[in-house]
Design brief:
By secondary structure, the chain is an all-alpha fold. It folds into 2 domains: 237 residues, MFS general substrate transporter like domains (Growth Hormone, Chain: A); 53 residues. The longest helix is centred in the last third of the chain and has 33 residues. 33% of the residues are buried.
Length: 365
């Protein structure tokens, strides 16, 4: 349901945003959130109106008080992630300089301090048992790899549609529509396949679709038609929906009641880290490949020369992103397989009060 809702938003976003940008300018897209926010605010006030009965949470006993929020751990994790992404994004402008090395060093140092702090604090932000699970870690890695490959490809695909093919934002949104449609249609199918085939096979198949979509996008050029472009986005949408449903199921299903919130937070964090790293990597790869693929042509050739340079760099960058998705496919092989149906003799035996188990009664009868 959640993935389907994201797919619906992905359908409406490019179309509405493209129409507003094309006809009213890019600033108009920020007003899209105003009406829904006001509606939700009014709905929240209506629920807690004076005439409505107040809803109060039961008091938590002192002996079962929940752990405190690990603010130092959250701060260290934020510094590590922000330093890593900020450094990678700045590489295309500054190159690999001393400042880049310092930025990466600060990110690594903050990450190490976070791990050390989590091992020593009494109320860690991430309980050790969650990440030590045999399935949660690989599932989170799959989500990071899939979202990095997808959003890195979307980042480059947007420039390809608007700068190389010279499409306006609305036409670009229409070209990418198959991705959103497949997310809506693929979410329930992925849930069904997960139940029947198991998370491992389903996630591997989804990652293969993502790899194929990114590789096909790396082959696009000036003469690529709507069918070829739509096919790339279709594969990306089908694969990403499958991976998102399956990996999220694995992360949350095995979590205990006490760590369910942490597991959901880790899933959401992975879905935010992946796109940030994917876009940063795509920017860096484009800059590096663009400097090597100019072919000695003078920049005075204008927009067509710039588009040719972009195309020469887009292929290698997308190939690297496809390799990231392939690494996610390898991680998907560590997810649990299809669970065997429970046999009747494996069912828990229900005992009667002060008497033998029902299974003995049935056998004696």
């Amino acid at each position: 349901m959640r993935t389907g809702a994201i797919g619906l938003a992905a359908v409406a976003g490019p179309l509405v945003g493209g129409a507003l940008t094309t006809h009213l300018g890019w600033r108009a897209v920020f007003f899209v959130n105003v009406a829904p926010a006001l509606a939700m605010g009014l709905a929240a006030l209506a629920v807690q109106a004076p005439s409505a009965p107040a809803v109060r949470a039961p008091a938590t006993p002192r002996e079962s008080a929940r752990p405190r929020l690990d603010l130092p751990g959250a701060g260290l994790l934020a510094v590590a992630l922000a330093g890593l992404v900020h450094t990678l994004v700045g590489v295309p402008e500054t190159g690999w300089t001393v400042a880049t090395a310092l930025g990466l060093g600060c990110a690594v140092a903050a990450g190490g301090a976070f791990v050390r702090h989590e091992r020593r604090t009494g109320d860690p932000l991430v309980p050790p048992g969650v990440l030590r699970s045999d399935t949660a870690g690989p599932a989170l890695g799959v989500l990071v790899a899939a979202s990095a490959a997808l959003f890195g490809a979307l980042f480059l695909g947007t420039y390809y549609l608007q700068d190389v093919l010279a499409l306006d934002p609305l036409d670009s949104g229409l070209r990418a529509l198959p991705l959103a449609v497949m997310m809506v249609l693929g979410a329930p199918v992925a849930a069904m396949l997960t139940r029947r085939q198991g998370p491992r096979r389903t996630a591997v198949a989804g990652m293969v679709l993502v790899v194929a979509g990114v590789l096909l996008m790396s082959r696009l050029g000036r003469g690529s038609g709507a069918e070829a472009i739509g096919g790339c986005f279709l594969l990306l949408g089908a694969g990403f929906a499958t991976v998102m449903v399956t990996a999220t199921t694995v992360v949350v299903r095995d979590a205990s009641v006490d760590t369910a919130g942490v597991a959901g937070g880790l899933q959401q964090t992975a879905m935010n880290i992946g796109p940030a790293l994917g876009v940063a990597a795509a920017t860096t790869l484009m800059s590096m490949a663009g400097r090597d693929g100019t072919g000695g042509r003078p920049p005075g050739d204008g927009p067509r020369w710039a588009a040719d340079v972009f195309l020469s760099a887009m292929g290698p960058a997308l190939t690297v992103l496809a390799a990231v998705a392939a690494a996610g496919a390898l991680l998907a092989t560590r997810l649990p397989g299809r669970s065997a149906p429970r046999r009747p003799e494996d069912q828990p035996v229900e005992e009667l009060p002060d008497g033998p188990p029902r299974s003995e009664i049935a056998s004696s009868a």
